[in-house]
Amino acid sequence: MTTVLVFLDHPGASLAKSERELLSLGASLGEVAVALADDADPAYLDGVGSYGVQEVYRPDAAVSEVLVAGKAAFLAGAVRAAGADIVLLGNSYEAKEIAARAGVRLESGVITDVVGLSSDLTATKSDFAGSYTVDCRVTTGVPILTIKPNSVEAVEAGLPSSPREVRIPVELPPAAARVTGRVEKPVSGRPELTEARVIVAGGRGVDGNFGPLEELADALGGAVGASRAATDAGWIEHSAQIGQTGKTVSPQLYISAGISGAIQQKAGMQTSRVIVAINKDADSPVFEIADFGIVGDLFTVLPQATEEIRKRGL
Ligand SMILES: Cc1cc2nc3c(=O)[nH]c(=O)nc-3n(C[C@H](O)[C@H](O)[C@H](O)COP(=O)(O)OP(=O)(O)OC[C@H]3O[C@@H](n4cnc5c(N)ncnc54)[C@H](O)[C@@H]3O)c2cc1C
């Protein structure tokens, strides 16, 4: 039986959607074990158990205190202890770095930004700022794959099981950088950008007023994103930036408003399922990648869309 080790980093009160997606993908490939970097609530562990997970591997040291190096050492130990055949992680910058460092320790191949995985472990990803869609396979060691949110369907598992905790001895690497304090981000009530099924993103055309975008995002239960021009202008926090030097997203629906569609912006959103672009310039390059385009002023179009969606109770 294939053993799939799923690495879960920051356990919340319950399983996040992207974590359920990883566990669902793992369960479709074989028997799932979990490597859990941090302490978790019983409700969270129940959620993990509901995917049939029998073993949860935990570090015997405070790996979170030394940034990614400690977590990579723990993950490599958990892969050996579980006899894992496949390793799945999320696709945050941190997860990708942990994957890379664990890959070096295990002499295993790593594929990041995976948006599709077939049963023979051929991974699909987009490369060179979204210019190519590439199929690739790990040919050495235990395949380590980081999976983009919204790439697989999260199925509800519901198997009653209480996973057994297995402690992994971790020798913490000498800390070149240590965590000295943590402040939790204020909760916005909107979904996390990389997990959202709907994103309404604004650029320079928003001219400092994200209000109409927030209204539409709330009507659709979505998140608000931005181009670098908007984050550089200080109109919205940097964590909302999508693109080459921001976040990579692949929601079901990406609504781009007042964004020209530069290659560096496209790099972060090109794999979205459906792209709707609103721009007052009919020749804007954003229309080249849009499934639906509206030539118009976003301050006219967005409120109309919001009103219509609210009217229909969608
Ligand atoms: C190394 C590097 C990394 C980068 N990384 C990123 C990145 O991660 N993410 C990113 O986004 N960019 C990134 N950039 C910047 C990128 O090249 C573009 O400069 C940026 O994406 C432009 O943002 P924008 O589309 O919002 O602004 P603009 O290009 O100025 O476009 C604004 C658009 O809004 C339209 N508009 C104006 N008013 C309205 C209105 N009222 N209604 C409708 N439409 C309107 C205009 O027609 C125009 O098309 C990077 C650049 C470099 C060099």
From TrEMBL:
Which purpose does this protein serve, as stated in its record?
Answer: The electron transfer flavoprotein serves as a specific electron acceptor for other dehydrogenases. It transfers the electrons to the main respiratory chain via ETF-ubiquinone oxidoreductase (ETF dehydrogenase).
Q: Which domain of life is it from?
A: Bacteria
**Domain Electron transfer flavoprotein alpha/beta-subunit N-terminal per the UniProt entry, residue ranges:** 4-181
This chain's protein is named: Electron transfer flavoprotein subunit alpha/FixB family protein
Q: How does it assemble?
A: Heterodimer of an alpha and a beta subunit.
Q: Which cofactor does it need?
A: FAD
Similarity annotation: Belongs to the ETF alpha-subunit/FixB family.
One Pfam family of this protein, by short name? ETF
Q: InterPro entries, alphabetically?
A: DHS-like_NAD/FAD-binding_dom, ETF_a/b_N, ETF_a/FixB, ETF_asu_C, Rossmann-like_a/b/a_fold
Task: Please tell me the species this chain comes from.
Answer: Arthrobacter burdickii
Q: Which SMART domains match?
A: ETF (SM00893)
